[in-house]
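HUMAN: Would you supply a protein with fold tokens?

ASSISTANT:
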Amino acid sequence: MKMRRVGPVEYDIIRLCMVINIWWVGLKLYKNPFTSLKVVRKLIRNFEEMIGNDKFVRAFKVDGKYNWDMFNPAWPSKGFDSFFKTHLLEVKPVTGEEQLLRRLLIAITKRCPLQCEHCSEADTLYQSDVLSYDELAQKIDGFVEKGVGQLVYSGGEPLSRYSDLIKLIKRYNKQCDQWIYTSAYGLTKEKAQQLKEAGLNGAAISLDHHLEEKHNSFRGNKNSFKWIMKGIKHLQNAGILVSINVCPTREYIEIKGPEEMIELARNKNIPIVNFLEPRAVGNYEGKEVELNDQEKSHLLELSKKYNFNKKYVEYPTVLFPAGYRKTLPCGGGRSYLLLDYDGTLYPCPFCKTKLPSVPKQNTESLCAAS
């Protein structure tokens, strides 16, 4: 089934249903309907304060489930319930209930066909895989058994370890929302269909310039743009929600590149554009690449423009998570972790401070990059 865009009226109804669902999760957690209602209201207020008391004007429906971004599991699903159980515990802990992760990022391989200008994994890229499928699954099992709501497979290029990727997605398809972060390398029509049948919910594809030549130069591969466009079409035809991950340089923002990227996404029927903040790590270590306040403000204003104005309901949802850092601290080590290709845990892909194999969760971010 292909994606259907959900407008403001239907979304308001679905949003109410989701709130009732979260209240029900809270009722089972707190054993008191009024306590659950109070915590859910606090959760909603926190979210509304973060986005400036606005309302999203669209959502997306795929296979009977509703999505509104790439960071929250589709509703209704077990992953949604687990994800928001953890959210509720962050607002009001319960004695005897362990506060767990909402999301686990998994770098299943360091193999990659690209040489990206901004690669944060430059120091370990192209190294051989360390964990076997069974060893990797055993580590992920522990998080899934404890209720992690979303799994995100990355790398390197996760499609470079395709057979194991398919097995992992099948293994957790009834328990978690699952995404891949990919360059679309080798993403054929057949593979897109296999990923769908395995249970993949979404794919975030890296695209860093709206012009083919510029993107290919940034990615260090003359074929990158073409296989991205083909891969997006294959995923859409298979019924997999698609987002594009964009790492905008300061120069790209200056030439109004983000606006061009949003128009490209609209023309290609891509529902989500996610702008990632460049960080001075990996290939960017020691370089003046991080955005200034004016550039961050520009991306945040674009996000607000397209997300909250009904005039732009036919456009994609535009995300810029770093824009909300003042009201929502980095979740690295707090609500999500990175499980690296060798089994090492880190707070996030940018902060390479090694953590214990089963880190104790707390309410403070462990990410030094935040």
User: Anything to note?
Assistant: The chain has eleven helices and twelve strands. The longest strand covers residues 177-182. The longest helix spans residues 8-30. The chain has two domains: 4-91, 103-346.
